[in-house]
Amino acid sequence: MSEKLKVGILGGTGMVGQRFISLLENHPWFEVVTIAASPRSAGKRYEDAVGDRWKMTTPMPEAVKDIVVMNVNEVEKVAASVDFVFSAVDMTKDEIRAIEEDYAKTETPVVSNNSAHRWTPDVPMIIPEINSDHTDIIAKQKERLGTKRGFIAVKPNCSIQSYTPALKAWEEFEPYEVVATTYQAISGAGKTFKDWPEMVGNIIPYIGGEEEKSEKEPLRVLGKYEDGEIKLAKEPVITCQCIRVPVLNGHTAAVFVKFRRKPTKEQLIEKLESFRGAPQELGLPSAPKQFIQYMTEDNRPQVALDVDYERGMGVSIGRLREDTVYDWKFVGLSHNTVRGAAGGAVLCAELLKAKGFIEAK
């Protein structure tokens, strides 16, 4: 009998669900035993339910092909088969909020890739290297839900991963104003070039709802857990533009920063390269050994060369230079469906297990 925790994937046939399944293949702590999706997929073998819609570059793991997909709406039945679930369901925000709470109330922890609960006050929104202490709010959430072990935790938007870690690393220099433009891959919309041929050779200067998320979510991640609540950071003030570009995987950000305490370039680079958080200290299985790498070449980071840094779990920063209007500017790159989506959620679940929040039922 496996000693691994039994995992369910809610929304397992979609692109993020597929990424969860790929990342969890041979995971040392977790084993996918249940896949749930919409009623139209329920009752089919996973391989048949996905059909020709497998979007990963690696083959579908053999271990999941014969799993019979369950109906995600049969909450009690799905929850009975697992220790916890990852959520990547494709529903309205109200439906997601309701179904994730329904799962939590069955005493099943939910680690969500969805945005629906990111602003629920007692749900932690976690980048594990930055705000692992926000898990302390879970006790209050359990009181509200009336649960002993069931709760919800979420990861933030994929677009903020390429610059928020740098802002945290530079915290002591007091960044107070940020302008960021993100150049976002099509997989962030759950698409490939086969699905979205009009993106070939094209740029779309609008991604619905993305700019607000990119400006506001870092303030929650960078906020402090005090007096039983997560208090938003007041600074830096962030303004952002988000642009869809013809790239499959990898969100790039061009960022300008003003600091109250003026750092040198050497100080900024040293803070990036030495930055560590709970995943590194705890030796979590999915943790990058070095979370942030600084690249000295003028033409790096590049999506084609650098998106898979630390198996897609690290962040690459380059082109750090003084600016004529702001103090410093840089370019960041992160893998949007690994660190920014399923991989970030897997790391979050590892953190929650290491801290005792997720255990076998």
Automatic annotation (TrEMBL):
Location of the Semialdehyde dehydrogenase NAD-binding domain: 6-138
Keywords, ordered alphabetically: NADP, Oxidoreductase
GO MF term list: aspartate-semialdehyde dehydrogenase activity; NAD binding; NADP binding; protein dimerization activity
Keyword match rRNA-binding: no
Pfam families tied to this protein: Semialdhyde_dh, Semialdhyde_dhC
Enzyme Commission code: 1.2.1.11
Listed CDD domains: ASADH_C_arch_fung_like, ScASADH_like_N
Alphabetized InterPro entries for the sequence: ASADH-related, Asp_semi-ald_DH_pep-lack, NAD(P)-bd_dom_sf, Semialdehyde_DH_NAD-bd, Semialdhyde_DH_dimer_dom
Domain of life: Bacteria
GO biological processes: methionine biosynthetic process; threonine biosynthetic process
Active site positions, chain numbering: 158 (acyl-thioester intermediate), 251 (proton acceptor)
The keyword NAD belongs to this UniProt entry's keyword annotation: no
NCBIfam families registered for this protein in UniProt: asd_EA, PRK08664.1
Family stated for the protein in its record: Belongs to the aspartate-semialdehyde dehydrogenase family.
Name this protein carries in UniProt: Aspartate-semialdehyde dehydrogenase
Organism: Anaerosacchariphilus hominis
Lineage: Bacteria, Bacillati, Bacillota, Clostridia, Lachnospirales
Name of the gene encoding the protein in the UniProt record: asd
